[in-house]
# Entry
Amino acid sequence: LFFLCFFLSFFINIPQSTIEMRCLVYRGPGASTRSVTSTVESLRRALARHRQHTDFTVTTATPADLLSSDDEWEATTSLLAFPGGADVPYCNSLGAVGMERVRRYVESGGRYLGICAGAYFASGAVSFEPGTELEVVGERHLKFYRGVAAGAAYSGFDYESERGAVSAPIRFVSSVGGSDWETCLDYVNGGPLWMMDDIDDTSVFRINSVNHSRLEGVDILATYVDLKHAVAAMRCRVGRGVAVLCGSHPELHHSLIADIDSGDDPVYAEHVQRLKENLSEHEAGRKKLFDLCVDAAIQPQTKSDEFRSTQRM
# Structure
């Protein structure tokens, strides 16, 4: 009944006070404080565009909240978001029981948004910096996208600084189900990419003049322009629900990038300053990319439109 009201709210004029939707952002071990804060703030801004239909409340949820037997959060949550950080603590904090609750929530009609670490967490497997001190390699429980999330997309990642951060050129579809594309620069620091060539039941199609494997139930929302248009964001149909995975950080305002650990290193200080300046020039595009990810997650899908973007490529 909850999701039926949610979907109907997009098409009929129901008084705002009658429909209130809760969006939860994971806050716990592994989640970057900056990413939690920026995800909450960006969700509130993006969802305000739909306020004529629905009153959204955006709050945070700890592992204890998601594991609680007293709180049936699944029945009152329209969107569950996992922000950037590190996904191994997500796995450890929720455990098999918590991850299974998240998986069943989405399969039953829930909506999931995974940003950076949240996107690794939602993939079939992770291959992060194999053969290095930072290596994280292994299968994942959720498998909203059944293939491998490979990272870091750009080399030089450092957990303690912005040394590996880049203002990456991202090409993204202008609207859900549309065929027009736009480009912006977005912050990427350790995030994944997906090649979609590691799953058996795929066929090949072209996007941005590059061959990609087509997987039924997956819409490509964005690609990395300078990484041979590897997938940067996607929408996956999961049972009756939807999961949106994004490797970049379209939730992050450039002002939140701290001038940390520069010390007496003028090269690093210049890198951070240039990073912020580049991103500041693409604020409008960043917001449109985040809005696209949110819309792809929450908008109802019909049989006629759920895979329109991939069918047109």
